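User: ok so my PI wants both of these folded by tonight, can you help

Assistant: No problem, let's get them done. Here's the first:
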Amino acid sequence: MSVGSTTACDPCAPRRAILFYTRYGGLYNETWRLQSATVSRTIIQQTYFIYGVTNWMDVEIAPQWLQNSSEGQSFSGFGGLPLQLGLQVLRGDSDSWPPDVRIWVQEILPTGRCNDLPLSTIGVEGTGGGSFATTLYGFYSSVTVRGFNAYGGGFGTDGRVDPGAVATLTVA
């Protein structure tokens, strides 16, 4: 497990470039004590290309460009290549209780560099995980809320809540 911070722009916005920044400065050992480590930084630029096949199915490709740096060394290259198939399973009316339900199946192709990294570059040339990864996502639509509700609320509350991802199953 690592200690760091990650920030990202809106990851659900289609047809946009997303920028992630991660800084690692330590690792937890087997007794969960923080051990200092060499500070490393990763910047990932990911651009989403989405094509609607039908009104209930789309295909997405999201190539990644990474820049890793540590101790004055840096390396840039392609990361894994995510391919997604999105299916609209349920489309609810805006005036009724059934939600919109969308399922995404994603396969990450191991296009990043993960093997035969030079020892002299302290691992900054690694840009991928080296394995295929399959992920199943379930996302739900916004929910109309009034008064006290499962998301909090109170007297006079009248609005919408986005519950986000409610289930993730990763198979690798």
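One down. Here's the second:
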Amino acid sequence: MSHDILIIDRYPVEVAGFQQVLEQAGFRVVVTTTDRPESLPPDLAVDLLIFETSSGRLEYKRLQRTLASLMKVNPKMLLIAFSETEWPSQVARAMILGANDYLLKSDPVEILVSAVKLALSGKNPPVESRILRMKTWLHAPVVTDTRIPELTTREQQVLRHLGVGLANQEIAASLQVSVETVKELVQSLLRKLGADDRTAAAVKAIRLGLA
């Protein structure tokens, strides 16, 4: 069975490289190099989307809209994110978007081909996957530490999410709770940590080794 793959990336040379590698591995690639992926045909059939992540908030919002549009036509579409960097916030956002894996552009070709094959075969990524490591970290159980006030499991999880720079909506999506619940947890954290704002709480999380 053949699979259609869409690649969204800003640079034609990188897209050409991805296309060549994947087609040599037997996959069919639908390519776009546009900076406006929302201009893609609305009825485009895709099995797997390989998308470039960005640290920019506007670019992330645009990517969310593109994914939502593609998912309407391809509700079972799989996702693989790739980037030049491994910034925690980017990995976490890719995880929240539902990415099966997060690859670096410097990874060996074999890693890309393996990640695509695993995703399309319905198998989980390897345990060393950046997505799995991020999910494990963000959802980890409570840490017992005398330097940390008595935080609930949820509060510690929210604190980790704040530490990697996620917004309330992103935290809610990750923890599968409402945005209002996240707001209440953040306020509780600020009181317990004696922090004035989210940034101060995030700094505290990093100093305590929770982010």
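The chain has two domains: 4-126, 139-207. The first strand starts at residue 4 and ends at 8. Good luck tonight!
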